[in-house]
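Quick one, T. Sequence first:
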Amino acid sequence: MSGWRPGDRRPDSASMLRVDQAGEYGATRIYAGQLAVLRRNCPEARLIARMAAQEERHLKRFNVLMAERRGRPTALQPLWNVAGFALGAATALMSEKAALACTDAIETEIDRHYAGQLAALGEDDPELAADIADFQADELEHRNTAREAGAAQAVGYPLLTAVIRAGCRMAIGLSKRI
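Structure tokens:
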């Protein structure tokens, strides 16, 4: 708890954990939607399947932390289930490159989100901070992989990614509180 003084605001680890678990759950649903649509042997599907496996690992870890800390998931989880799958399926139906643009957009926002959480946590919760830093590295790798595989070649890339990023920010804000 270095640097903390009476009157200082402590980071809200419970809210952080709730929104992070919701985000990882949403990511697994997005990838499930994409994989339900994409041809199994296309290069993008292989990339997405690998990223989906990493998101499953993140989700399992946040589920363990929530159980250990007696946290509660967001009440919006049923919505994120449907919305995530629909977003994944819709972008995959648009094109393989649009599916990658979705990953690019989501992971750009998640990188910003995790960076903000790490700054807020400081040294107050080293266990959660270590997990967030580890997962942030994976998310950046997902974003970079999507970009290298041609995410920016998606039709309407600037608009598509702007809309997805805005939706991601909204989902983060709602999941923190609800």
